[in-house]
Amino acid sequence: MKDTNCIFCKIAAGEIPSKTIYEDGTFRVILDISPATRGHALIIPKAHYANIYELPEDMAAAAMVLAKKLALHMSEILKCDGFNIIQNNGETAGQTVFHFHMHLIPRYGDDGNQDKICWNHLELSEEELEGICQKLRQ
Ligand code: 5GP
Ligand code: ZN
Question: Counting CB atoms within 10 angstroms of each CB, which of 19, 43, 70, 89 has the fewest?
Answer without folding.
Answer: 19
